[in-house]
Every structure is written in C-alpha cells, then in structure tokens.
Amino acid sequence: MSNKLKWIQDELHNLQNSGLYNRIRTISSPQGAWLVVDGKKVLNFCSNNYLGLANHPQVVAAAAKAVETFGVGPAAVRTIAGTTDLHMQLESRLAKFKGVEAAITFQSGFNANIAAIPALVGKDDAIFSDELNHASIIDGCRLAGARIVRYAHCDPQDLERAFHDERGKYGRALVVTDGVFSMDGDVAPLDKIYEVSKKHDAILMVDDAHGEGVLGKGGRGIVDHFGLHGKVDVEIGTLSKAFGVVGGVVAGNPLVVEWLRQRGRPFLFSSAMTAPDTAACLAALDILEASTELVDKLWENTKFFKAELQRLGFNTGQSVTPITPIMLGEAPVAQQFSRELFENGVFAMAIGFPTVPRGKARIRVMISAAHAKSDLEQGLAVFNLVGKKLGVIN
Ligand SMILES: *Cc1c(COP(=O)(O)O)cnc(C)c1O
C-alpha cells in the first residue's frame, strides 16, 4: 500500500496525544433533560434544545402529519420542484416573528451563512468580522473572496479602527458578528456595532443562532433585545437550536431575500428543507407566539444554575446567556472532567481547539427549559463532586 494517506494517521495520533481527539457519543433516546447515551441514562447538559421543543408533542405531531401529506424527501432544490406551501408559510411567519419584511429558509444555519455572505460581497469588497465568529461565518467569508478584516472580540472601537485602516481599499463593506457567541455565551454590543456600521455605510449582518428563542421578547432574538428593528440589514438564524428542528433562515431586507432566491448557492444547488422539518418549525413558531412561558423558564433555570456554579467556585467566563462555560484551561483536563461527569451520570462535553482557542478548553454547560429544578440540583451536586476531585474548586 502506498504511503500517501499516512499523514492522516500521524495527525490523528497528534490529536489523541493532545486531548483534542473527538470521541463521539451515541444517543438512543429523544432529546430532553435526560438522554440515553452509549446505553446509559444520563442528565443532559449539552444540547442546544433551549426550549425543549425537539421532542415537544405538538411539534412531533406536526412533523408526523406533514409526512402523511407530503412524504419524506423534497426531491428537488427550491428553485425547481422543492418549494411547498409549507416553505412559503414558514418564511412569512418567520419574517413576522422577527419583525422584518422578508425571510428565506435554508437547510441549516451553516448553509444560511454560506449562502448570504458570498451573495453580498465579492473580491473588491471588505468584510469586517469579529475575531471569535462562528466557523460557518468564517467559511462564508472565505467563499466570498472578499478581503477579511478581523476586529477584536465585541470591540466597536477596534471596528472603528479597522474601518480607518482600510479606508479607500474596498468597494462594499459588510460587518458581521455572532449575536450570542456560541462558546462563551457573551452577547455582541450590537447597538454600538450598528452605530459604527451606519457611519461607514456598511451592510450589517448578525448571526442570531443562539439568540432566537432566547433573547428579546418571547425569544424574538438579539435585534429585539436591543430594539434595533429596521436597522440590521441581514439576520441569520437557525431552526436547529431553540426551534428544536433543523434548518436555517436569512431574515431582513426584502431585497436581500429576493437576491438570495436568485444567488444563494445552497438554495439553488442543495435540496429543500424537508416537509416534516418545515411543518415542525411552523409548530415551534405557534408555541413561541402563544406564550413566553418556555423562554421565561429557560432564563429562570439559567440564572439559578449559573449563580450556583459560581457559588461553588467555578469560573464561568463572560457568559450572560444559557450557554455556561466552565473554564478549565488545558484540553486533557477538560476531557477528564467530562469523563468523570459521565461516570457520575452527567453528560456535558469538553470543548477544545479548534472550536475554542488553545489553552481555553472548557466544559460547555447548556441549560434548557426542559430541566426541572431537581435536575439542576442533581447536576450541581455532580459538578461539585468532580470539581473537588480534580482540584478545580476547593
Ligand atoms: C450553530 C450555529 C450555526 C449553524 O447552525 P446549524 O443550523 O446547526 O447549521 C451557525 N452560526 C452560529 C453562530 C451557530 O452557533
């Protein structure tokens, strides 16, 4: 056998030796506060199922009904034969929910970024991007072929500096930021970023993947949280987190949406969201619009859990949202922490490079409205036990 793939073996060994090898656990139950993972029933602290909608009876029933009506696969891309009534309904309902004029859906949030960024800017243009933006934003920026100018994390003054340095070097400008940063749980100062973007006549885009269903009135997202309605040109969203299903969305200015129907490559070249997924998202919207109960519960759980972790002595970083990192430093420590948690019936994965910078490995705890108070208390007891055993807390 030739040696041309041996480098992969070497790379995999390196990952194993540095504690960065992904060992993937297998789930054999629906999503919820408790999961069956690798055959064991454990308390779940790592899903993005913020509101518990992934297995909500109303959402599940809507998906089942859509299967009966439309079958399973879309059999085409949206522009050929893949657009159903359900897609059209979902897009107008999402626009209304977000308080914008138009929306277009994609198969995932990742695809929404890959579609939107290259459609808006090209090689003569510049993208001003927060240094900790999500990988799908980074890949969208690379695909656009525009000049990528990184500014310091959540720092509008550094964004201003970047505009100053780049003056005269680009045609169009796009400013792009995560709304809630997915690994730290901090929130972009979107009001100040808007001011800088406006001053420089830049298109403003925010990725609200972890803000929808979480921030703003009844989970309407970061734009609502800051009262910036009508001021943000492009909002990226996912239907895979708080919505509990799978899919992505671009919402905002109708010109952008119309342009993506013509030029969003994953819209034109990858098959449509399936009917059951689309119907499930519509049911999730019904629930979100009917009451703020789940969003309120999510925040109540978040405040309790975070305060208790801090009281125990854990460092939860900059988080102000349900994403609660427990900062541990080196990757092998985080991996050991996760293994010990699992042995004690708690499922929370370690996160290391390249998802977070080197030396900033952590356990990322995800809080959900699906957790009962007793689940949170039980989880805290295990975090306390493992934290003491590994000398992370006293
Ligand atoms: C999770 C996430 C995505 C990807 O969403 P999917 O629907 O899972 O593809 C995009 N952007 C951010 C900021 C995310 O956190």
Tell me the helix content: 40-55%
Q: Give the mean pLDDT.
A: 96
CATH topology of the largest domain: Aspartate Aminotransferase, domain 2
Q: How are the strands of the biggest sheet laid out side by side?
A: 3-9-8-7-6-4-5
Unreliable stretches, pLDDT < 50, 5 or more residues? none
Can you summarize the main beta sheet?
7 strands, mixed
Our Rg estimate from Cα atoms comes to: 21 Å
Total number of strands: 13
- Can you tell me the CATH superfamily of the largest domain? Type I PLP-dependent aspartate aminotransferase-like (Major domain)
The dominant shape is globular
What class would the helix/strand composition place it in? Answer: alpha/beta
Please write the CATH class name of the largest domain: Alpha Beta
The CATH level-2 architecture of the largest domain is identified as: 3-Layer(aba) Sandwich
What is the element string, with H for helices and E for strands?
HEEHHHEHEHEHEHEHEEHHHHEHEEEH
